[in-house]
Prior knowledge:
The chain is of the alpha/beta class and about 220 residues long. About 35% of the residues lie in helices and about 20% in strands. It is globular. The relative contact order is 0.15.
Amino acid sequence: xxxxxxxxxxxxxxxxxxxxxxxxxxxxxxxxxxxxxxxxxxxxxxxxxxxxxxxxxxxxxxxxxxxxxxxxxxxxxxxxxxxxxxxxxxxxxxxxxxxxxxxxxxxxxxxxxxxxxxxxxxxxxxxxxxxxxxxxxxxxxxxxxxxxxxxxxxxxxxxxxxxxxxxxxxxxxxxxxxxxxxxxxxxxxxxxxxxxxxxxxxxxxxxxxxxxxxxxxxxxxxx
Length: 223
C-alpha cells in the first residue's frame, strides 16, 4: 500500500479536479460546515495583535476568505501549505493579489509561525491500517508543535454510536490525542458545536518535547 503522504496527495488532487476550488473540492459537504470548523480552530488565536499563521492542508485557501469576512481588521501574515501541487496552484491563482499570503507545497509546515492550524486533514484514512495512520497523525502533530511559537489547533471526527469502522475514514475518542498533545503543550478541548467531532487547541509550553511525542506514537500497538 502506498505511503499515507502519496495517497493523501492523490486523493485531494482528485477532489479538486472533480469539484474545483469549492468546499467539495477539499472534501467538505458545504461552506457552512467548513466555516463552523474555522470558528473553533481560530479560538486559539489572539486577534488583538498581529500574528503569523501556518494553514497546514490549506487546500485552495478557504481560510483566507473566512478571515477576510470575520476578521477583516486583523493583521495576519498567512502561509498556506498543502501536499497537493494542484491545490497549491489553485490557491496561488485564487489569491494572487493578496500580498500577505504565500503558498507552499509540502508534507510539513517548513517554517515557524505564531500559530498553526489544520482542518480536517486526519479524517480521510484511505484504507490505511489504524496503527499506520496514527503514526502519520502523530508525526504531523509533532511538526505542528515544532512549527508554532504560541500554539496549534486541529480537529478530529468522533466515533459513531454503533462503533462501526469505515475503512476510508479515521474516527477517534478525544482521549487518544489529548494525552499525546499534553506532551506538546497545554490542551483545551472544544466540543458540542453541532458536529460529530472535536477540536484540540494546544498552547505551547517551554517544556514541551515534540520529538519525544512523535517517537512514542510510533511505539503504540494497533487499537
